[in-house]
Amino acid sequence: MIYVGWLIYRKEDAERNQAYIDWFIEECSKQSIKLHLVLREEIGIGIQNNQLSLESKYPLPDFAVVRTIEQMLSSHLERLGVAVFNSSTVSMIANHKGMTHQVMGQLGIPMVDTTFYRKHDQVVKPPLPFPIVVKDTEGRGGKQVFLANDMKEWDEIKPHQWDSDWLVQSTNVQPGKDLRVFVIGKKVIAAVLRENHSDFRANFSLGGKARLYELSVEEIKIVQTIIDAFDFDMVGIDFLFSLEGKLLFNEIEDIVGSRTLSQLSSINLLAQYVNHIRKTLEETN
Questions:
Q1: Which of 17, 137, 153, 177 could be stapled to 97 by a disulfide with Cβ–Cβ 3.0 to 4.6 Å?
Q2: CA–CA separation, 175 vs 284, rounded Å?
Q3: Residue 283 lies in a domain
Q4: Could you give the number of structural domains in the chain?
Q5: Given the DSSP bridges, would you call strands 166-170 and 114-117 parallel, antiparallel or unpaired?
Q6: pTM score, whole prediction
Q7: What tens digit of pLDDT does each residue of 154-174 get?
Q8: Region 206-221: what's the mean pLDDT?
């Protein structure tokens, strides 16, 4: 059976990720899947004649891969019978750092002390001793992440002016070092250690170095606890390291890329992801 899917991007992001999009379409073609790039700007969702509606130049697909961080769109597609990868539930939790940490806390996953705030909350004095990290709960790629070493730097950040929720975290970790674990379904595909000696953030896009990393038995147990609590399709689970070298949960990347992994190994992450999508569709149809 040939399945038809949408790969949804905003126009600006699609232009920047054209090579990845072409690769995704090619891998789908190899597995008898027709994948169309659909720009978010060309989709209209709402209610017409008391029913859910969706406007697009394409007929509704069998599935959609939503790369726009838009839980409302994902949910709308699901309610119209379209399988969405990742699901709207995963997208909602993964793309709000506060909600993600809340779930991890319930699971007992190790992490740094974290305090949650609503958007526009004005806090005169931070709840944790300096130095601290202040994050926009919806930021990605290391953006909207700030280090404050004292009250002067705290006052300069002004998170109460952000138009989203935010959080404050302890910095009792090894700076400029983190671990990304690539997961497809219930399977760990690989882990990549990222280090940056010139920035407290380890992001590869911010100049960090990366290498493959072999998870220990103890680390695998932590990752597996998270995997068992979710119905992931493809995500990156990011960890920091305590001063003693233990994993501390950091975030879940819903729209995870594979550039770093491709540079470090021969692993074809997209081929495995497409295979997961096809098997999921076959099992549910």
A1: 137
A2: 44
A3: no
A4: 3
A5: antiparallel
A6: 0.93
A7: 999 999 999 999 999 999 999
A8: 89
The Cα–Cα gap between 45 and 72 comes to: 9
Question: Position 244: which residue type?
Answer: E
**Is there a single domain that holds both residue 176 and residue 166?**
no
The encoded tokens of residue 37 equal 């790039």
Amino acid found at 38 = V
- Structural tokens at position 261: 């992994």
Does the pLDDT of residue 201 top 80, yes or no?
A: no
- Within this chain, do residues 137 and 199 fall inside the same structural domain, yes or no? no
In DSSP notation, the chain reads --EEEEEEE-HHHHHHTHHHHHHHHHHHHHTTEEEEEEEGGG-EEEEETTEEEEE-SS---SEEEE-S--HHHHHHHHHTT-EEES-HHHHHHHT-HHHHHHHHHHHT-----EEEE-TT---SS-SSPSSEEEEETT--TTTTEEEE-SHHHHHHH-GGGSSS-EEEEE--EEEEEEEEEEEETTEEEEEEEEE-SSSS---GGGT-EEEE-PPPHHHHHHHHHHHHHS--SEEEEEEEEETTS-EEEEEEESS---HHHHHH-S--HHHHHHHHHHHHHHHH-
Q: What CATH number is attached to the domain comprising 129?
A: 3.30.1490.20
Give CA–CA dist 82/88, Å, rounded.
11
Tell me which residue has tokens 């990868």.
Answer: 85
